[in-house]
Amino acid sequence: MKVSIPSPLLSYTRRSEVDAEGTTLAELMADLDRQFPGLRFRVIDEQDRLRPHVRFFVNGEQILDLSRKLEATDSVQIVQALSGG
Amino acid sequence: MASGSDVVVLVATRKGAWLYRSDSTRRGFRVDGPHFLGHIVSHVVLDPRDRRTLLAAAKTGHLGPTIFRSTDLGKTWAEAKRPPAFTKAPEGVKGRAVDHTFWLTPCGPSEPNAWYAGTSPQGLFRSDDGGETWEPLNGFNDDPQYRLWMGGEQDGTPDGPKLHSILVDPRDGQHLYLGMSSGGVHESLDGGKSWAPLIDGLEVVEGLDATDATFHDPHCVRLCPSDPDRLYQQNHCGIYRLDRPGRTWQRVGKAMPGDVGDVGFPLVVHPRDRDTVWVFPMNGETVWPRTSPGGRPAAYVTRDGGRSWQRQDAGLPPEQAWWTVKRQAMCSDQGTPLGLYLGTTSGELWQSRNEGEDWQLVARHLPEIYAVEALGLSA
């Protein structure tokens, strides 16, 4: 499925949209980390919590649960939230 | 420097890192940067064992913490494969997550690829592969008594609680010290497996219990390379000296001028003289402005182990300069005479080529400076 990448992560992916696979958001992030080592830890902490200023949207809906099921046709956006000056 | 070595000054800021290089005269610096523009860089350290490897502790406003590593003095960088991270907590238990790595310490020559890292919230980590992968020292990080002393996220500095001042005894890599803000000074004799407080003689804020490490706030602890049995510290409550095997700190800051006081953040020890130390006082009155007293920045030096202190402000702004110099933002090189460097939160980098007798501006208009380290590029 297509995954939209925010600018802070372009140093990993080099492009703003990438393909990744997974039946859950957690699996999708594991696949992204396989393709782009180090990316996952920058957005998900060691307790498997989303970091404070990163959000996931699936088909336009904000998702906070990494166990959220995904379909191959879903569109996933990783979004940078406001984080101050 | 008299030794003929080029010197590099590593400046970590809230918006990236800069490297300033000079020849042995230390007159005129060539700037290399920014590195990691936009990253919050807490510390950049050059490995004194090879004088080529750099580690940088970084995060951004959006992205979590990581360590960048260069083996060619900053020409190229690679990210750590496994940055410092706490062990995942069991189901149902709220585990801790590293917000940022705050402090980096290379181990001694007998452990050529080993480093320690201190984090916020407070944790201790070690790498044995030059900073590629990091493991938590869980005997310390998960110790119930230490977790109590570390306090919660509200119990540290405005940027969060910090584990800092990780010191390795150059004679014995198993002998370690560290500082916790807050939480006190602690010592390990077994390579960090077990720790014990070293807080006797240290004062705490009036009304609190000085026997409880919770209330202690060492800002910066240094070990004298010329005599590893001597430690100094700049504490929230004064400047102290400790001569081992003694266990009771002496408040040598009482000899500072009364209108300046002995509050501050950084402390620099002379690498070749255990009696010579510099501090950079901050105003600790009433609401704790933490700025240069009276708006007149100055270093203070002792050359007799803290019995007396002399003001060193030649070249620094004489008035209306409300500087803050953070705990990692003042250092020395190893030249002769010794060079000193300091960075302000207002983004100015200053140097002294003569042990503080006078000061020159190296750079201004930088972001808020968090840390300054300097080292000659040859031993």
State the CATH superfamily name of chain A: Beta-grasp domain
Kindly state the mean pLDDT of chain B as a whole number? 96
Which spans of chain A of ≥5 residues are poorly predicted at pLDDT below 50?
none
Name the strands of the widest sheet of chain A in spatial order: 2-1-5-3-4
- Give the strand tally of chain B: 27
Kindly estimate the percentage of residues of chain A that lie in beta strands according to DSSP.
15-25%
- Unreliable spans of chain B are none
**In CATH terms, what is the architecture of chain B?**
7 Propeller
Mean pLDDT of chain A: 94
Tell me the CATH architecture of chain A.
Answer: Roll
Query: How many structurally independent domains of chain A?
Result: 1
Radius of gyration of chain A: 12 Å
Ends apart, CA distance between termini of chain B: 12 Å
CATH class of chain B: Mainly Beta
* CATH fold category name of chain A: Ubiquitin-like (UB roll)
CATH class of chain A: Alpha Beta
How much helical structure, as a percent, in the residues of chain A? 10-25%
Order of secondary-structure elements of chain B: EEEEEEEEEEEHHEEEEEEEEEEEEEEEE
Radius of gyration of chain B: 19 Å
Structure annotation, total helices of chain A: 3
Question: What multimeric state do the chains show?
Answer: heterodimer
List keywords for this structure.
heterodimer, A: 85 residues, alpha+beta, Ubiquitin-like (UB roll), five-stranded mixed β-sheet, 24% strand, globular, B: 379 residues, mainly beta, Methylamine Dehydrogenase, Chain H, four-stranded antiparallel β-sheet, 2 helices, 3% helix
Care to describe what's here?
The complex is a heterodimer of chains A (85) and B (379). Chain A contains three helices and five strands, in the order βαβααβββ. Chain A is of the alpha+beta class. Helices cover 3% and strands 39% of the residues of chain B. The longest helix of chain B is centred in the middle third of the chain and has 7 residues. Chain B is globular. The model of chain B has no long low-confidence stretch (mean pLDDT 96). Chains A and B meet through α3 of A and loops of B.
